[in-house]
Amino acid sequence: MANRYFTVSWDQLHRDARALAWRLLDKGPFQGVVAITRGGLIPAAIIARELDCRVIETVSVVTYDEESMGKPQVVKAPVAAGDGTGWLLIDDLVDTGTTAKIVRALLPGAHFATIYAKPAAKPLVDSFVTEVSQDTWILFPWDTEVQFVPPIAKGGVTPA
Ligand SMILES: O=P(O)(O)OC[C@H]1O[C@H](OP(=O)(O)OP(=O)(O)O)[C@H](O)[C@@H]1O
Ligand code: HPA
Ligand SMILES: [Mg+2]
């Protein structure tokens, strides 16, 4: 369970995605990028632009929380990437590693990179930029909006 938040702005996301692209420069060239939808789409677009890569494939896995007892479902398999050799696989983050394990099994040859990584799944990633503790929930700009907060003296609370 998350007990803190790490808020990522569009600017920060762009900077961190570019930092990842720098790290990936000497791991390529890649014949294409596979984005893990949906969270990997925007990071993949930024990184593909920086690496001058125009071929983008997608893979989609829907995972369910423990309460629903459902099995993760691959709702869109990658078509063009073979076993992943020569391809760059991108997601926004790894957390428990459930998504990463499934996608790695589909594309064992790919170089797997994420912007953020939590400790439980760090060993599953080949490249990442920032480690975030397991109990921190990352708030991405596409999931949030800016809103008014009352002054501290009037009860405003700034999340840690
Ligand atoms: O390591 P895990 O515990 O599997 O969590 C990481 C995954 O969870 C989020 O995707 P989510 O399944 O919420 O779907 P989305 O990308 O469509 O938002 C995130 O984008 C990663 O893909
Ligand atoms: O920390 C997170 N933030 C957003 N989505 C996620 N999906 C798994 N972990 C996270
Ligand atoms: Mg995702």
TrEMBL record:
<dbReference type="GO" id="GO:0052657">
    <property type="term" value="F:guanine phosphoribosyltransferase activity"/>
</dbReference>
<keyword id="KW-0808">Transferase</keyword>
<dbReference type="GO" id="GO:0005886">
    <property type="term" value="C:plasma membrane"/>
</dbReference>
<feature type="binding site">
    <location>
        <begin position="91"/>
        <end position="99"/>
    </location>
    <ligand>
        <name>5-phospho-alpha-D-ribose 1-diphosphate</name>
    </ligand>
</feature>
<dbReference type="GO" id="GO:0032265">
    <property type="term" value="P:XMP salvage"/>
</dbReference>
<feature type="binding site">
    <location>
        <position position="95"/>
    </location>
    <ligand>
        <name>guanine</name>
    </ligand>
</feature>
<dbReference type="GO" id="GO:0000287">
    <property type="term" value="F:magnesium ion binding"/>
</dbReference>
<feature type="binding site">
    <location>
        <begin position="137"/>
        <end position="138"/>
    </location>
    <ligand>
        <name>GMP</name>
    </ligand>
</feature>
<dbReference type="InterPro" id="IPR029057">
    <property type="entry name" value="PRTase-like"/>
</dbReference>
<dbReference type="GO" id="GO:0000310">
    <property type="term" value="F:xanthine phosphoribosyltransferase activity"/>
</dbReference>
<dbReference type="GO" id="GO:0006166">
    <property type="term" value="P:purine ribonucleoside salvage"/>
</dbReference>
<dbReference type="GO" id="GO:0004422">
    <property type="term" value="F:hypoxanthine phosphoribosyltransferase activity"/>
</dbReference>
<dbReference type="InterPro" id="IPR000836">
    <property type="entry name" value="PRTase_dom"/>
</dbReference>
<dbReference type="InterPro" id="IPR023747">
    <property type="entry name" value="Xanthine_Guanine_PRibTrfase"/>
</dbReference>
<feature type="binding site">
    <location>
        <begin position="95"/>
        <end position="99"/>
    </location>
    <ligand>
        <name>GMP</name>
    </ligand>
</feature>
<feature type="binding site">
    <location>
        <position position="92"/>
    </location>
    <ligand>
        <name>Mg(2+)</name>
    </ligand>
</feature>
<keyword id="KW-0460">Magnesium</keyword>
<comment type="subunit">
    <text>Homotetramer.</text>
</comment>
<dbReference type="Pfam" id="PF00156">
    <property type="entry name" value="Pribosyltran"/>
</dbReference>
<protein>
    <recommendedName>
        <fullName>Xanthine-guanine phosphoribosyltransferase</fullName>
        <ecNumber>2.4.2.22</ecNumber>
    </recommendedName>
</protein>
<comment type="function">
    <text>Purine salvage pathway enzyme that catalyzes the transfer of the ribosyl-5-phosphate group from 5-phospho-alpha-D-ribose 1-diphosphate (PRPP) to the N9 position of the 6-oxopurines guanine and xanthine to form the corresponding ribonucleotides GMP (guanosine 5'-monophosphate) and XMP (xanthosine 5'-monophosphate), with the release of PPi. To a lesser extent, also acts on hypoxanthine.</text>
</comment>
<keyword id="KW-0660">Purine salvage</keyword>
<comment type="pathway">
    <text>Purine metabolism; GMP biosynthesis via salvage pathway; GMP from guanine: step 1/1.</text>
</comment>
<feature type="binding site">
    <location>
        <begin position="38"/>
        <end position="39"/>
    </location>
    <ligand>
        <name>5-phospho-alpha-D-ribose 1-diphosphate</name>
    </ligand>
</feature>
<feature type="binding site">
    <location>
        <position position="138"/>
    </location>
    <ligand>
        <name>xanthine</name>
    </ligand>
</feature>
<comment type="similarity">
    <text>Belongs to the purine/pyrimidine phosphoribosyltransferase family. XGPT subfamily.</text>
</comment>
<feature type="domain" description="Phosphoribosyltransferase">
    <location>
        <begin position="9"/>
        <end position="148"/>
    </location>
</feature>
<comment type="pathway">
    <text>Purine metabolism; XMP biosynthesis via salvage pathway; XMP from xanthine: step 1/1.</text>
</comment>
<keyword id="KW-0472">Membrane</keyword>
<keyword id="KW-0328">Glycosyltransferase</keyword>
<feature type="binding site">
    <location>
        <position position="138"/>
    </location>
    <ligand>
        <name>guanine</name>
    </ligand>
</feature>
<keyword id="KW-0479">Metal-binding</keyword>
<keyword id="KW-1003">Cell membrane</keyword>
<feature type="binding site">
    <location>
        <position position="95"/>
    </location>
    <ligand>
        <name>xanthine</name>
    </ligand>
</feature>
<dbReference type="GO" id="GO:0032263">
    <property type="term" value="P:GMP salvage"/>
</dbReference>
